[in-house]
């Protein structure tokens, strides 16, 4: 391997690593707030990427056809609850978001955004994907939110298979690849870095800084952290687990949409690419001990680098190599007993 | 005196085990009502059932409204606030953040939240000194102070205290009970769970005794204090002052 190849591989690894890191941060956030191991996160990335491609082609975004039925289902569930329990309110955040999601879906179907503006394309993707997080939480996870981690994981797997099953007929088996949002290379004192890499780094830093600010300097953000620190304490100060869960899922779907936009110009995205992506983000989380955001992000970046170098040396084995990384980590964790985190919330 | 909360036929179970059996109790507005009882009598379980933290059956009427099926967070919004036995603080957050989160359920502007915070700091200056310190690094007494302060941030109508003297140094216990009496004098209604029956009966107006999940009828605290059987079981030999 010569330095040029190494540099290329490193660039490749870092771009992958950034996507894994975003996935890892989202998965960790959802886990800490709701104890759900959110394998569905990969589907958000795929949806984001595919939607970007469809918007660029001027097609109707298939994601709208997932969003609208989901919103309707959620509305029906809330209507059933309204009939059964007389003290539940008709006007709630949930119903508001369902209606908003329906409006976005209709808008995207009948007035697909035209034009080449990258901002318009990005906004469309984010608006279509983000509401799916809270809607999925309310339909699939809310009523079992006090079950064991294992039950929640099964539920997440079910949601994953359902979404993947719907995405095949919706998007077909072909790969999707977006036109690059930024082009060219930038010269850093003799080292040429692709503009895409710089763009991704900027988005990553912006997003993580924004998240950090929200979690440490706003009351709602602190409330989400409070839920992850002490579930019982959070309920006792009146933090609604319903809204906290939906917020965590919403942030996850937002991060997923952004990751999808970032990854779309880099590689072909297939309807079933999500699971492997989520698993690699998850590896990052585990490397970070399933507790710390910076460590999870760092772990995911390393996973990305390992992924790309493994692809160079033994491309057939690259996924095995990445997942083999889990073994020493899990061993270490079972020795130091931090793996039980989150289960103490049993009431 | 008007009744703030009426609980009837409350059962709390953990799987097969019945921890609270058909409990009935009233809390009168503006009074301290205490529940005394030995280890494992079911006092904490009763509070968990009241708040909706544990599975329960039976009815809870608070301020004339049936709140039996409401989740804890909406009970908190109505002003039913519990200082739990285990404090349940947010250990890796600062004292100030813990207090601010206590006001999560109150409809408040940033401004009025600050006012409440200043009020709590004035009541417990020690918390003000430690405002940037992580809650997990506080001493036992300070943690209890913080738990109480956090509850007060939520503007309670009914303050439920589960063994506030647990794990406190003796002189701090007296301080704690002075605060509790002070809160009642400000008009707060308090449901006080205590193992230290003598102290509890000294400050309370009404009292219940819990035994193996069953709760006694209501009695005047003063009368309870003078009863021989209670004295023998819960008060222990009177210490020489
Ligand atoms: N989470 C739980 N699961 C199963 N059993 C429980 C649980 N919590 C309490 N119990 C049982 O219920 C009974 C009542 O316990 P509880 O903690 O309510 O008593 P207590 O009066 O608060 O005691 P203490 O004075 O020690 O705080 C005990 O026998 C206890 O073992
Ligand atoms: Mg107890």
From TrEMBL, chain A:
GO terms for molecular function: transmembrane transporter activity. InterPro entries: ABC_transp_permease, BCAA_transport_permease. It holds the Pfam family BPD_transp_2. The chain crosses the membrane at residues 18-40, 60-83, 90-112, 118-138, 150-171, 191-215, 236-263, 275-298, 310-333. It is found in: Cell membrane. One of its GO terms (biological process) is amino acid transport. One of its GO terms (cellular component) is plasma membrane. Belongs to the binding-protein-dependent transport system permease family. LivHM subfamily. It is a multi-pass membrane protein. Signal peptide: none annotated. This is High-affinity branched-chain amino acid transport system permease protein LivH. Keywords: Amino-acid transport, Cell membrane, Membrane, Transmembrane, Transmembrane helix, Transport. Its main location: membrane.
UniProtKB/TrEMBL annotation, chain B:
Keywords: Amino-acid transport, ATP-binding, Nucleotide-binding, Transport. GO terms for biological process: L-amino acid transport. InterPro entries: AAA+_ATPase, ABC_transporter-like_ATP-bd, ABC_transporter-like_CS, BCAA_Transport_ATP-bd_LivF, P-loop_NTPase. CDD domains: ABC_TM1139_LivF_branched. Pfam families: ABC_tran. SUPFAM superfamilies: P-loop containing nucleoside triphosphate hydrolases. GO terms for molecular function: ATP binding; ATP hydrolysis activity; branched-chain amino acid transmembrane transporter activity. Transmembrane segments: none annotated. The keyword Aminoacyl-tRNA synthetase does not apply. The keyword Transport applies. Belongs to the ABC transporter superfamily. Involved in beta-(1-->2)glucan export. Transmembrane domains (TMD) form a pore in the inner membrane and the ATP-binding domain (NBD) is responsible for energy generation. This is High-affinity branched-chain amino acid transport ATP-binding protein LivF. The gene is livF_18.
């Amino acid at each position: 391997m010569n330095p040029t190849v190494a540099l290329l591989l490193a660039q490749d690894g870092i771009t992958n690593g950034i996507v894994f890191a975003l996935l890892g941060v989202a998965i960790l956030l959802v886990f800490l707030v709701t104890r759900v191991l959110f394998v569905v996160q990969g589907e958000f990335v795929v949806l984001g990427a595919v939607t970007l491609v469809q918007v660029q082609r001027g097609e109707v975004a298939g994601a709208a056809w997932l969003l609208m039925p989901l919103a309707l289902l959620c509305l029906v569930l809330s209507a059933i609850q309204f009939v059964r329990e007389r003290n539940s309110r008709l006007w709630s955040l949930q119903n508001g978001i369902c209606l908003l999601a329906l409006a976005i879906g209709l808008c995207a179907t009948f007035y697909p955004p035209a034009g080449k503006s990258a901002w318009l394309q990005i906004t469309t993707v984010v608006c279509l994907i983000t509401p799916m997080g809270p809607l999925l939480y309310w339909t699939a996870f809310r009523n079992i939110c006090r079950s064991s981690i294992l039950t929640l994981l099964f539920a997440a797997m079910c949601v994953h298979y359902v979404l993947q099953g719907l995405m095949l007929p919706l998007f077909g088996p072909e790969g999707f690849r977006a036109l690059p949002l930024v082009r060219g290379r930038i010269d850093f004192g003799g080292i040429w870095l692709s503009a895409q890499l710089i763009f991704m780094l900027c988005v990553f830093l912006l997003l993580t800084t924004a998240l950090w600010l929200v979690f440490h300097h706003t009351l709602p953000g602190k409330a989400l952290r409070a839920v992850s620190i002490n579930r019982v304490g959070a309920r006792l100060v009146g933090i609604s687990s319903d809204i906290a869960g939906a917020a965590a899922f919403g942030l996850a779907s937002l991060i997923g949409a952004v990751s999808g936009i970032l990854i779309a110009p880099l590689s072909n995205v297939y309807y079933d690419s999500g699971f492997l992506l989520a698993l690699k983000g998850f590896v990052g989380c585990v490397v970070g001990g399933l507790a710390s955001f910076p460590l999870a992000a760092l772990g995911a970046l390393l996973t990305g680098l390992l992924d790309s170098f493994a692809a160079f040396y033994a491309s057939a084995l690259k996924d095995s190599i990445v997942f083999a990384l889990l073994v020493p980590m899990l061993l270490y964790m079972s020795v130091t007993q931090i793996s039980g985190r989150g289960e103490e919330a049993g009431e | 005196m008007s009744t703030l909360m009426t609980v009837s036929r409350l059962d709390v179970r953990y799987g097969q085990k019945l921890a609270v059996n058909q409990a009935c109790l009233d809390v009168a507005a503006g009074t301290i009502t205490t529940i005394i009882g030995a280890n494992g009598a079911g006092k904490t379980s009763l509070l968990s059932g009241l708040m909706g933290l544990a599975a329960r059956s039976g009815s809870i009427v608070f301020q004339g409204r049936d709140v039996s099926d409401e989740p804890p967070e909406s009970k908190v919004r109505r002003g039913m606030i519990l200082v739990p036995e285990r404090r349940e603080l947010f250990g890796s957050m600062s004292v100030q953040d813990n207090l601010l989160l206590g006001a999560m359920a109150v409809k408040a502007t940033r401004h009025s939240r600050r006012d409440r915070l200043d009020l709590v700091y004035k009541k417990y200056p020690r918390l003000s000194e430690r405002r940037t310190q992580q809650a997990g690094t506080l001493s036992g007494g300070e943690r209890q102070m913080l738990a109480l302060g956090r509850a007060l941030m939520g503007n309670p109508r009914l303050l439920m205290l589960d063994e506030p003297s647990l794990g406190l140094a003796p002189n701090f216990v007296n301080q704690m009970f002075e605060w509790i009496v002070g809160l009642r004098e400000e008009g707060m209604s308090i449901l006080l769970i205590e193992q230290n029956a003598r102290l509890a009966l000294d400050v309370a107006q009404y009292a219940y005794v819990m035994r193996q999940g069953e709760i006694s009828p209501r009695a005047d605290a003063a009368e309870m204090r003078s009863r021989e059987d209670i004295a023998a079981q819960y008060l222990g030999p009177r210490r020489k002052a």
